[in-house]
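Training component of the fellowship. As part of building independent skills, the fellow (R.M.) carried out the full modelling exercise for a liganded target. The chosen ligand was zinc ion. The inputs are recorded below so that the supervisory panel can assess the work.
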Amino acid sequence: MSNDYITRVVSSDGAIRAYAAITTDMVNEAQRIHHMYPIPIAALGRTLTAAAMMGAMLKGENDTLTLQIKGDGPLGGIVAVADSRANVKGYVYNPDVDLPLKPNGKLDVGGAVGRNGYLSVVRDMGLKEPYTGQVPLVTGEIAEDLTYYYARSEQVPSAVALGVLVDVDLTVKVSGGFIIQLMPEADEKVAEKLESIISSIPPVTKMISEEMNAEDILKKVLDGFELGSFDRLNTQYRCDCSQERIERALISLGEKELTDIIENQGEAELTCHFCDKKYHFNKFELQDLLNKSKERP
Ligand code: ZN
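Fellow's submitted model of the complex:
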């Protein structure tokens, strides 16, 4: 059972749209599945937290969102997928990355991600072509990269904060974040006021550690702005893989590849990247999939 949630609020004048998330259970679940070192936990935790809030922003019930970060650092890359009900799943390419702490004592997520690379957002809204936006990485620290993505790719000035506090036993103490977005109604004054508050508030992990809930965090960030009512939504780590999906992936490999597997290995075991569940196929089952593959137009 997850206690994680997202809260949403819009300022009374419509100029600010804000989201905050508490994601401690979600990131602990990701850690239970992936057995990561501290830096990958922080990197994936920040990305999952962002994806959960971005999922909550999706308009269509069946829309999905994939947030991907790829750099030239040892982490390789990060993938997070969310749906409109804020179910999220994700993984890092290399869960065993370890680097020295930064001079400020923080985990070096930017160093693990690397600089030369991109952040991409793919929104699948059930249309023929999904919407894709991509920007080069700024720092690899994820929150800054997402801020840059919103400004450059979506022309929405935003403030993004994401934080994961990893304990010595490699569990997650607290995790969460917020995304504040300025709507076209917002003028220069609103932007300046918001900027000055955000530069003076404590890190999001500190606020959560001090038992502030997501509403408290948004009230602090949006201090002095008149707000509408808060709206909560549950969020959790959830993988929706199934035997049928894996079969479809195998069929799509095509005749040649499947014949190769049958002749050389005689069986196949596939592991879901998102939840580590294993799917086993014996020779007869593979033969059946090969026949289905041949029937495909
Ligand atoms: Zn899965």
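The panel noted the following from the submitted structure. DSSP finds ten helices and 13 strands in the chain. The longest helix spans residues 38-56.
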